Amino acid sequence: MATNADSQIIWMEGKMIPYSDAKVHILSHSLHYGTGVFEGIRAYRTADGRTAIFRAEEHFQRFFDSIRALGLHCPYTISDLIQASCDTVRANEFKECYIRPLAYLDDSIRGLKLPDNPKALVAIATWAWGKYMGDDGQTKGIRIQTSTYRRADVSTSLPLAKLTGGYITSVLARREATKNGLDEALLLDPQGFVAEGSGENLFLVKNKEILTPPVQFILPGITRDSVFQIAKHLGYSVREANITRNQLYLADELFFSGTAVEVTPIREVDYRPIADGRPGPISRQLQETFFKTVQGEVPRFNSWLRYV
């Protein structure tokens, strides 16, 4: 059932459909086998009162890269889907919202064998979504735990693609953390180094240097790249490096980045407080500058905004 936060209108295959009519058959191949691609994008209300989609081009480029990695065909262009997203945000009269594009296969394909160049169907939904970890999580920091689940080896996964089926590990890891009374999970890679959260990239601050796991077993986030560029703009050194759990425990600061989580400090890992257990100054500065950026208040990054 739709809520007041949901779209009243969803874009499906070039048409605006009422929420209650946006349906997919029970025998959809993507439902059975996870052969779907999705994106998570945010639209923000900027300082001048307009609405802007954050880094729409980059998100839809990754959307199409994921479709290609899965071996599907999409009849639309990046420009088509950016325009469809703008139209959907306007149709639902959102000033700020989350945008969910989804590419999927219908019920015409049965079994594991896919035909050559199968066509992906595309839908775009929007909904109002506040702070993913809650207001307190964003201001005071969150508590996380190292999960018993790990990111898959690159030989058995497509880590650069945002695939629906690939997120079952994230669901299980997040559920494990929630049952233990914590806010989020942290997954290791197959070698035992830190990978990422269930749906977020991780950054570590030590001696004013910012580290983040390399692009091997992680999804390289659009917000992750934004943090790289914002940090360098503020004069910080940022580099990729293998990170151990021991390094996390001794970090000066930790924070997550991601479309849903935005920039959220981490105050505790595996029941160990990080530094004094409060968000550190660099995390705070990056968080503050990120929110100014999405609101159109940092001219250097205004090209990241696509006004609706």
Commentary on this structure:
The chain has 8 helices and 17 strands. By secondary structure, the protein is of the alpha+beta class. Helix 2 packs across helix 3. The longest helix has 15 residues. The radius of gyration is 19 Å and the shape is globular. The mean pLDDT is 96.
Q: How do you describe this structure in short?
A:
This protein has 308 residues and is an alpha+beta fold. 27% of the residues lie in helices and 28% in strands. The chain has helices at residues 29-33, 56-70, 78-91, 134-140, 168-179, 222-233, 245-249, 281-294, and strands at 9-12, 15-18, 37-38, 41-45, 51-54, 97-104, 121-127, 142-150, 184-188, 194-197, 201-206, 209-212, 237-240, 253-258, 262-269, 272-273, 305-307.
Average predicted local confidence, pLDDT: 96
DSSP summary, beta strand count: 17
Shape: globular
Distance between the termini: 27 Å
Number of helices: 8
Please trace the helix and strand order, writing H or E for each element. Answer: EEHEEEHHEEHEHEEEEHEHEEEHE
What Rg do the Cα atoms give? 19 Å
Helix % is 25-40%
Give the tags.
308 residues, alpha+beta, nine-stranded mixed sheet, 27% helix, globular
SSE blueprint and pairings:
Blueprint: E1 9-12, E2 15-18, H1 29-33, E3 37-38, E4 41-45, E5 51-54, H2 56-70, H3 78-91, E6 97-104, E7 121-127, H4 134-140, E8 142-150, H5 168-179, E9 184-188, E10 194-197, E11 201-206, E12 209-212, H6 222-233, E13 237-240, H7 245-249, E14 253-258, E15 262-269, E16 272-273, H8 281-294, E17 305-307
Parallel strand pairs: 8-9, 8-15, 12-13
Antiparallel strand pairs: 1-2, 1-7, 3-6, 4-5, 4-6, 5-17, 6-7, 9-10, 11-12, 11-14, 14-15, 15-16
Helix pairs in contact: 2-3
